[in-house]
Amino acid sequence: QYSTVYAVYVEDAANAYSGNKYFSAAFSVPSTYAGQISGGSIALYRSTHLEAGKYYEVSVYANKDSATWSDMSYRINFVYGTTPEHTSMTAISSSNVTVDSYVKQVAYFQVPTTGDYYLGFYTDQPNDGSYYVYADNFAARELTIIPPTGISAVPTSRSANFTFTNVSPKAELFVDTVEADVMLGRIATVTELTGTTASVTGLEPNTKYYYAMRAINGNDTSVLSVTSSFITMVEPDTIPFREDFEGYTAYDWTGAEWAT
What we know:
This protein is mainly beta. Helices cover 0% and strands 46% of the residues. The protein has strands at residues 8-11, 21-26, 42-44, 48-50, 55-64, 74-81, 90-97, 103-109, 115-124, 132-143, 149-155, 159-165, 170-176, 188-193, 197-201, 208-217, 220-221, 228-231. The protein starts with 7 loop residues before the first strand and ends in a 29-residue tail after the last strand.
């Protein structure tokens, strides 16, 4: 799909998550725009000794250019391998990069045998486009216990149902209206979760909530999962109803935001 594979480390503090440099990726013929790389490129870390049976976390802060169309699905894909070759790397997981601000992307994995491995990530998207993805602060660490994964929420107007995967015996769920305070769980704190589902009731319609989880194994507690959010649905209207749009502001075709 791409004529050439490039790896570009850009010095530009304005677009870095921290410091002055970041890893830049884009999706077009590389010669079209300076500083872009194709989606097939891998950012490889140096060879690292990993042990079978242990849990590891890899993470990177990823951001996509604000000019990117929202319907384009950009992804960060984490990989590992015993040799630094794209075709020989083993996939860990992938996650979508959906906003034009840095968000931490995290994956957890185990290796099949003890040995030296290369850790890395690459970017891709299924559509044709010419827009950037930025990545910074690529990191890896060993964990004795990992948080629940695959966490998702399906809200109604006054409740939310959660599903997740947990390799530990128990888990905790936290829900709050403030992202930075999610672990306070002021809206809901659900403890002693032993299955793969949870429910929270008593929520307000059309309200944004943040949630995160952690795993518990005996006296060990995992780090908190990445915080995610959902918006509860509005209360359904009753029939009959009538909408004449008189309470809305007309759209300004010169460039103003869409009215809501």
